[in-house]
Inverse folding.
C-alpha cells in the first residue's frame, strides 16, 4: 500500500520512487504516526515541537525517523521546503494559532521561490471551518402535542433535526464561524497557491482519537480516575465527525505518495474529507467512554457561560457536523484501523489509551502475621501507586452502610398508599370496604430492584458466627463487591491482610462465589455459575486475582507481641491489638499459613495458576522490628516496579506551585495589610497625641493670657499711686545723687528718699 500506483487520477510517479517529504512538527500527535508510516520508503525532514505534559508519551521519538531535524528559522525551513517533493502541515491540533502562522509563512516561501520539481502541499485542516455551513434539513413530522406538550418547556434538551451529511462539493460555498475565520482564510491561501509545479490539497479531518488521546484525553482521564460524571457541552445531540489518528495518517500517506489530480473546473477537487463512516453525537461519544469505564452518568452543562467548564468545549459542543465519507472511500488498498468508528471500536481505543499512557490495573495483596506492619506498608504502597487501600474493617462498614441509602431510595420510590373507599349507607347497602385491586408488580422496576438489594444486604448483615463475627461467605461477598467497583477495576487495589484463611481464599478467588448484592456493578439478576460447571470450578475470578503477592514475616513472634504491648493506649482502644486478640489472630495465622500446599499463599498461587497466569510472589523477612522502614519499602517498590497510574503531571505540579505561590502571596498580603494597619494605628495615635498636646498648650497659653490680663487690670491703681507719690521724689533723688556724687550713691539715695518721703507724709497729715 506504500508503493504509488500509476493511475489516471495520480501524478505519474515511478514505482518505488523515494520521495523527500517535509513534516511540520514531526513529533506531534498525528505527525508521529505519519513518520512511522513514511520513513520506511521515503526520506523525511521535519521540525520538532516541545510537547506538553498532557501529550501521550511516544514509544520512540519521531526524530529517529528524520534524516534531518530542521531548525525553526526562515532560512532552514525555506531550504527544506524547496528540496522536498511533498510538504505536510497540520492545522488540526491544539496549537492551531501557531500552526496557521507557520502555514502562511510556508505558502509565502513557495510562492516567492523558484524551483523545478513538482511539489504537493498538504494542509490538514479542521472541521471547525465548516461550523456555519448551510445544512439541508430533513422533513420531520410534528409530534402529537398531547399531555406532554405542557411539559415540553421543562425538558432540558430537545432532539436535533436530522439533516443530510455535508459533502466535499460544498467546500467552496461554506462559511466559517467568526472564531475560525482565520482557518478558512489560510485554507484559501493554500488553495490559491496552485501553479504548474505546486499542487495544494486541503484535508478536512474529523476529531482525532486513539493512541493515548489528545482532545478526548480529559474525558478518558476523568473516567479512569473514577469521576462521578463525565461532562457534556450543551445538549449533547450535536454530531461530531471523527477519525482515528492511524486512519488519518494512512489517508495522508496515500495523498502524499499518490496525490489526486486537481480539476481546474471543479473547485472542490482539492478538498477532501478524512472521517470514518460513523456519524455519532457528542452524547454518544462521551456516553461510550462512560459505559466502557463504568462512569455512572453524564453531566450536561447547558448554559453557554457554564459550557466553558467543559474541556475543549468549543471542539465538542461548538460543532454540529455530519460529513459524508467522500473521496477517501475510493482510495485503493487503504488500510483502515477503525473505519466503523469510535463507539464500535471503544474497547480497542481503550486498550490503546491504557498502553500509550502506561496505565494498568495494579492489584497487590499484602499478607503477614498480626502486628508485622501490613497496614503501614500497604498505606505507603497505596499512596505511592495511587490506588485504593482495601482494609477489612473499612470495607465491611462501607458495604453495610448501603442499607441506609437503599432504605431512603425505597421510601422515595414507594408510591403513597391509596385511601380505602367505603360504600355509603345511602346507596341502600350496609357500609363496607371496597376490595383493593391488586396491582401488578414490575420486578425490573427501580423500586423492586432496590428492595431486593436491601433484603440481600440485610440478610448478609445477620449472617454471623456464634462469636459475633461475620462468616467467611459474607466476607468473600463483601470483598468481591468492593473489588468489582469501577475504581478498583480501572486502577487496581491493595488488599491489606485478606484472605486470612484457606476457606476465605477459595471463596474470594473462585468464580462461583459471585457477587449478587450490587446490581449496578455486576448485574443484579445475573446467575452465578454452578460449583460443578465445566470450566468454572477452580478458576480464579479475574477481578479478585492479585498480580503481586507480598508476605511479610518475622523470625521471632515474641517481638510482635512486645511491639503491640508497647503501643499507646489510644491506638489499642477499639482494635484487635490487645493481648487476647493478638494471641487468637497469631494462632489463626499460623494455622492457615503453613509452608506447604495447605497454606493461604499456596492456595492463592494455585488458583492463579489455574487461570494460566504465573503469580508473582515476594516473601520479605524482616530482620528486626527496628529495621529501617524505608529499606523494606524500597524492596517492595523494586519488586512491584514503576507506577501504572497517573502520576503528578507537570500541569498539576505547576498548579500546586501556583497554589502555593497564591497562598504565600495571600500570607504576605495579609502581613503587609497588618503592618499597614499597625503603622496607620501608630500614626493615628501619634497624631492624636500631638493634637491633644497642642490643645493642652493652647489651653495653657489661654490661661496665661487670662491671668496676665487680670494682673494688668489689677495693677492700674498701683501705677497711678506710684506716678503721683513715688516717681517725683525718686526723680529728684536721682538728680541729687548726680549733683552730689557721693561715695555710696545707693545709701545716699535711700537716705534722701526716706527724708523727703517722711516730710511728704507729715505734710499730708
Amino acid at each position: 500500500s506504500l508503493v504509488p500506483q500509476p493511475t489516471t487520477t495520480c501524478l505519474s510517479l515511478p514505482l518505488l520512487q523515494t520521495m523527500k517529504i517535509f513534516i511540520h512538527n514531526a513529533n506531534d500527535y498525528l505527525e508521529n504516526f505519519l513518520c512511522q508510516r513514511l520513513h520506511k520508503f521515503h526520506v523525511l525532514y521535519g521540525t520538532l515541537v516541545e510537547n506538553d505534559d498532557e501529550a501521550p508519551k511516544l514509544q520512540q521519538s519521531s526524530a529517529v525517523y528524520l534524516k534531518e531535524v530542521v531548525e525553526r528559522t526562515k532560512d532552514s525551513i525555506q531550504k527544506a521546503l524547496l528540496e522536498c517533493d511533498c510538504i505536510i502541515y497540520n492545522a488540526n491540533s491544539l496549537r492551531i494559532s501557531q500552526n496557521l502562522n507557520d502555514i502562511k509563512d510556508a505558502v509565502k516561501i513557495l510562492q516567492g521561490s523558484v524551483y523545478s520539481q513538482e511539489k504537493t502541499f498538504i494542509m490538514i485542516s479542521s472541521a471547525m471551518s465548516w461550523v456555519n455551513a448551510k445544512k439541508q434539513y430533513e422533513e420531520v413530522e410534528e409530534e402529537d402535542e398531547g399531555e406532554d406538550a405542557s411539559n415540553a418547556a421543562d425538558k432540558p434538551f430537545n432532539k436535533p433535526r436530522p439533516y443530510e451529511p455535508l459533502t466535499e462539493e460544498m467546500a467552496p460555498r461554506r462559511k466559517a464561524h467568526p472564531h475560525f475565520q482565520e482557518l478558512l482564510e489560510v485554507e484559501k491561501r493554500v488553495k490559491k497557491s496552485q501553479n504548474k509545479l505546486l499542487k495544494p490539497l486541503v484535508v478536512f479531518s474529523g476529531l482525532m482519537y486513539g493512541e493515548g488521546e489528545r482532545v478526548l484525553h480529559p474525558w478518558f482521564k476523568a473516567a479512569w480516575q473514577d469521576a462521578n460524571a463525565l461532562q457534556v457541552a450543551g445538549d449533547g445531540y450535536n454530531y461530531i465527525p471523527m477519525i482515528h489518528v492511524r486512519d488519518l495518517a494512512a489517508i495522508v500517506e496515500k495523498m502524499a505518495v499518490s496525490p489526486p489530480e486537481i480539476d481546474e473546473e471543479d473547485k472542490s477537487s482539492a478538498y477532501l474529507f478524512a472521517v470514518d463512516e460513523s456519524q455519532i453525537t457528542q452524547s454518544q461519544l462521551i456516553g461510550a467512554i462512560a459505559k466502557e469505564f463504568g462512569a455512572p452518568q453524564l453531566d450536561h452543562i447547558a448554559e453557554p457561560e457554564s459550557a466553558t467548564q467543559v474541556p475543549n468545549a468549543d471542539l465538542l459542543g461548538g460543532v454540529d457536523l455530519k460529513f459524508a465519507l467522500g473521496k477517501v472511500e475510493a482510495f485503493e488498498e487503504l488500510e483502515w484501523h477503525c473505519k466503523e468508528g469510535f463507539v464500535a471500536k471503544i474497547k480497542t481505543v481503550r486498550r490503546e489509551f491504557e498502553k500509550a499512557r502506561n496505565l494498568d490495573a495494579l492489584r497487590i495483596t499484602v499478607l503477614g502475621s498480626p502486628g508485622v506492619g501490613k497496614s503501614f506498608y500497604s498505606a505507603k504502597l497505596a499512596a505511592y501507586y495511587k490506588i485504593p487501600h482495601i482494609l477489612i474493617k473499612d470495607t465491611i462498614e462501607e458495604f453495610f452502610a448501603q442499607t441506609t441509602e437503599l432504605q431512603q431510595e425505597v421510601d422515595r420510590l414507594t408510591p403513597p398508599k391509596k385511601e380505602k373507599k367505603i360504600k355509603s349507607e345511602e346507596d341502600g347497602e350496609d357500609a363496607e370496604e371496597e376490595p383493593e385491586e391488586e396491582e401488578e408488580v414490575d420486578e425490573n422496576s427501580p423500586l423492586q430492584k432496590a428492595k431486593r438489594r436491601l433484603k440481600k444486604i440485610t440478610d448478609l448483615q445477620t449472617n454471623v458466627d456464634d462469636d459475633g463475627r461475620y462468616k467467611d461467605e459474607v466476607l468473600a461477598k463483601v470483598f468481591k463487591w468492593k473489588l468489582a467497583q469501577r475504581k478498583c477495576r480501572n486502577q487496581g487495589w491493595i488488599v491489606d491482610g485478606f484472605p486470612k484463611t484457606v476457606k476465605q481464599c477459595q471463596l474470594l478467588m473462585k468464580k462461583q462465589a459471585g457477587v449478587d448484592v450490587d446490581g449496578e456493578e455486576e448485574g443484579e439478576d445475573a446467575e452465578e455459575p454452578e460449583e460443578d460447571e465445566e470450566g468454572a470450578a477452580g478458576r480464579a475470578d479475574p477481578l479478585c486475582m492479585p498480580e503481586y503477592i507480598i508476605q511479610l514475616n518475622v523470625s521471632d513472634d515474641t517481638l510482635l507481641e512486645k511491639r503491640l504491648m508497647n503501643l499507646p493506649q489510644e491506638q489499642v482502644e477499639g482494635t484487635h491489638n490487645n493481648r487476647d486478640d493478638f494471641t487468637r489472630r497469631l494462632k489463626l495465622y499460623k494455622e492457615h499459613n503453613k509452608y506447604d500446599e495447605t497454606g493461604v499463599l499456596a492456595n492463592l498461587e494455585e488458583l492463579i495458576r489455574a487461570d494460566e497466569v504465573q503469580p508473582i510472589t515476594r516473601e520479605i523477612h524482616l530482620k528486626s522490628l527496628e529495621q529501617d522502614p524505608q529499606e523494606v519499602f524500597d524492596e517492595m517498590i523494586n519488586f512491584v516496579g514503576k507506577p501504572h497510574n497517573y502520576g503528578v503531571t507537570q500541569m498539576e505540579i505547576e498548579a500546586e506551585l501556583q497554589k502555593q505561590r497564591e497562598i504565600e502571596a495571600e500570607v504576605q498580603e495579609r502581613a503587609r495589610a497588618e503592618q499597614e494597619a499597625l503603622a496607620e494605628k501608630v500614626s493615628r495615635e501619634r497624631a492624636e497625641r500631638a493634637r491633644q498636646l497642642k490643645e493642652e498648650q493652647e489651653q495653657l497659653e489661654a490661661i496665661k493670657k487670662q491671668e496676665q490680663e487680670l494682673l494688668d487690670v489689677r495693677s492700674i491703681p498701683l501705677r497711678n499711686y506710684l506716678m503721683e507719690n513715688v516717681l517725683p521724689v525718686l526723680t529728684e533723688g536721682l538728680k541729687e545723687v548726680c549733683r552730689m556724687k557721693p561715695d555710696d550713691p545707693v545709701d545716699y539715695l535711700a537716705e534722701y528718699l526716706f527724708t523727703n518721703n517722711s516730710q511728704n507724709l507729715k505734710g499730708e497729715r
Q: What stands out?
A: The mean pLDDT is 81. The longest strand covers residues 119-126.
